[in-house]
Specification:
The structure is a single chain. The chain is 37% helix and 21% strand. The protein has helices spanning 14-28, 69-76, 97-108, 126-144, and strands at residues 3-8, 32-37, 51-55, 84-91, 112-113, 118-121. Strands 1, 2, 3, 4, 5 and 6 form a six-stranded parallel sheet that branches. It starts with a strand and ends with a helix.
Length: 145
């Protein structure tokens, strides 16, 4: 069994809803998972997990949230080499450029990026939440293999 950390920031609740659906998916896979708002997770906590799922919506000019999430992720980057990582978030404009940039950044950190990021426009629909569950389940199983 592997242990996965889901770390997210949410301003409107959209990314939070996605995080909880992803958590359900990891649990369905039979693996352990803990979910954290970004301010609850410390860089020292990385040693306790085998996989990481990060969530943040697009903000401003297609960037990560700059007050809490960006500083956290910048500190986290040195811990991602050879680690399984998945990304997710929501956006309301711009077509998802922030996720493409974030995914490339994560690859450059040496992470084993599971996918190119799961994105949802505006609030997640029932189908979007099903895709979140699927992401959590498949990501956790990919670590087991």
């Amino acid at each position: 069994m592997v242990k996965v950390a889901i770390v997210y920031w949410s301003g409107t609740g959209n990314t939070q809803a996605m995080a909880h659906a992803i958590k359900d998916g990891v649990e369905r896979s039979g693996n352990a998972v803990e979910i954290f708002e970004v301010d609850q997770f410390r860089v020292d906590d990385f040693k306790d997990y085998q996989g990481y799922i990060f969530g943040c919506p697009a903000m401003g000019d297609e960037v990560l949230e700059e007050g809490s999430f960006e500083p956290f992720f910048t500190a986290a980057e040195s811990h991602l080499k050879d680690k399984p990582v998945a990304l997710f978030g929501s956006y309301g404009w711009g077509g998802g450029e922030w996720m493409r940039t974030w995914a490339e950044r994560t690859r450059m950190d040496g992470a084993k990026l599971y996918n190119d990021g799961l994105i949802v426009e505006n609030g997640p629909t029932d189908d979007d939440l099903k895709n979140c569950v699927k992401l959590g389940e498949e990501f956790a199983r990919s670590i087991e293999a």
